[in-house]
Design a protein that fits this description.
By secondary structure, the chain is an alpha+beta fold. It has 3 helices and 5 strands. The structure holds iron/sulfur cluster (SF4) (2 copies).
């Protein structure tokens, strides 16, 4: 019997791997430390250097009238480049993975 077939049979006997959406206590499941979820933005820390806009591969970041930035999360690919390049650490990819909204506006971080 081939190694692949043996591995398939072993997998059949193992318990399924599932993660509960809510913990027994009704709390949200913890996500890994480096998980890239919905962007968080500290407008007070932002100096308006626009480096994040220059690095964003999907055009998800735009300027605002106050010379700050806003993030269209619905365009974001969660690459993390904006967080990496920000000199003030004003952008982070948080742990929020619930990205379903009724209005598109709910997916804009400013
Ligand atoms: S994580 Fe990537 S795609 Fe999303 S806003 Fe930042 S640079 Fe753009
Ligand atoms: S890179 Fe950081 S400091 Fe510069 S505009 Fe973007 S969020 Fe603001």
């Amino acid at each position: 019997m081939g190694r692949g077939l043996r591995a398939a049979f072993r997998a059949l006997l193992r318990k399924p791997v599932r993660v509960r959406y809510l913990t027994e206590a009704g709390e949200m499941v913890p996500v890994p430390e480096r998980y890239r979820g919905k962007i968080t933005y500290d407008k007070g820390a932002c100096i308006g250097c626009l480096l994040c806009i220059r690095t964003c591969p999907s055009g998800a970041i735009s300027t605002t009238e106050e010379k700050k930035v806003e993030f269209s999360v619905f365009k974001c690919t969660f690459c993390g480049q904006c967080a990496e390049i920000c000199p003030k650490k004003a952008v982070k990819l948080g742990s929020d993975f619930e990205l379903v909204v009724y209005e598109k506006e709910g997916m804009v971080v400013r």
